[in-house]
Amino acid sequence: MKKLLMLLAIITIFVSCDVAKKIIDKNLPQEEDQTEDVLAEITGEKKEVVVDTNITLLSKKEIKKIKKERERQDKIARGDTLSFVKKKWYQFFPKREDRIVSYPKMYSEKPKSILLIYPWNRSKNQYASEMYLINISKELSQKGYYIIPTMLTLEKHKQDTMFSSHYIKNDEIRKYKEEFGVDAVMFLTIYSLSKPWWSTNINSVAEYCLISTSTTDTLFYRKADFNYDSPIPPYKVNKSAETYEMEPRTIPLFGTCFQMQRSVFMDFPYGPYHKKYLKDQKKFSYQKEMRYKIDARPS
Amino acid sequence: MKKLLIIVFSLLFLGACSNELYKYYDYDNLLYAYSSREFSEKEIKKFSKKYSRIVDSPKGKRNLPPPGACVEYGYLLFLQGKTKEAKEYLMKEAIIYPESQVYVNSLIKTLGL
């Protein structure tokens, strides 16, 4: 009996709530569209009343067809014209592209001197920028380019911290032609340079962008994700008494940085001081975004 | 004996095939130390002595000091107050690498040499 009473009470509460809501809704002032065309009233003009009468109902098949057509047009606009099979094929067997196709402006503008702007260090390593700068300047010099002295680039950054890839904008590049007399400027963003304690792998991710100082066109672009996982040290340490020793924990990081630059600039066109200058146009080139992995752990 | 000879010859051959344009010696260690430490005047003297090998005994295919080395050495000499020698090295860079002319001129101006 009690249960029945409880049920009845609950039902009456629910019903009363609904009734109350209806009453409130009825008594609320209704919003009416009272906007009038005041201008038309003053000038006495009569505006045509546009009535949207042509509504066509599409079948599911037609809607699907339109959707497909739109997706196809979007793909063409994005430049994604390859079929699924071809895309997968090129993913595993990338198409060989000559350097003249990949870096046409490097051969047309022929830069001779490069300024390495202090990198934007987004990694957690305090000295990642220095490690990158030293290794890149060496690598590009060996490729036959004139690189503005790294020591003085570091000094310039010490004096003015705005001299960094983080702050310099594209339209400010031209001034470096007057100040340093360089043909191109390299911007660098370091995303990571680390070795987790639980792993033997050293990971380094960075983005390189070489921009012409005369046209501000991008001459070379690469984003590289480099992994070094090997018991063989990536770098031969100079242990002579005449030099300064690096900290033991920085050696593998510096070495990875060194190996990374070798891989990243492997397909970089040769500079004017190299005997292969302008003769490497038909040699291979890598993709703009690369993943490198040196994995030589003993099995 | 034969094997040893083959190894020696192959090593010599590989050594001769080195594709490096310049010899950097211990440039990595030196520059990394320079960027990560604070050097006193005495230490700068020591540092430039160590650096001098890169400039004064060049090796590699071009048999010239690497790009920027003369400027860096000149700058180190300037920090020690040897302005005359510093200017000489800066001028040497502009002769070896004509692309550096603009930079060297502006550096001479800013250093007041």
Overall form of chain A:
elongated
Succession of helices and strands of chain B: HHHHHH
What is the residue-averaged pLDDT of chain B? 87
The number of domains of chain B is 1
DSSP strand count of chain A: 9
Q: What is the distance, rounded to the nearest whole angstrom, between the alpha carbons of the first and last residues of chain A? A: 78 Å
Query: What does the overall shape of chain B look like?
Result: globular
Regions with little confidence, pLDDT below 50 for 5+ residues of chain B: none
CATH class of the domain at 97-295 in chain A: Alpha Beta
Largest interface: A-B, 40 and 34 residues
Number of helices of chain B: 6
Helix content of chain A: 25-40%
Q: Given the structure, what is the number of helices of chain A? A: 10
Low-confidence stretches of chain A: none
Which structural class should the secondary elements of chain B be placed in? mainly alpha
In brief:
Chain A is of the alpha/beta class.
Question: Can you tag this structure with a few keywords?
Answer:
heterodimer, A: 299 residues, alpha/beta, Rossmann fold, seven-stranded mixed beta sheet, two-stranded antiparallel ribbon, elongated, B: 113 residues, mainly alpha, 68% helix
Q: What can you see in these coordinates?
A:
The complex is a heterodimer of chains A (299) and B (113). Chain A is α/β, with parallel strands linked by helices. Chain A is 39% helix and 18% strand. Chain A is built from ten helices and nine strands. In chain A, the strands form two sheets. In chain A, strands 2, 3, 4, 5, 6, 7 and 9 form a seven-stranded mixed beta sheet that branches. A two-stranded antiparallel ribbon of chain A has the order 1-8. In chain A, strand 6 and strand 7 form a beta hairpin. Chain B has 113 residues and is mostly helical. Chain B has one domain.
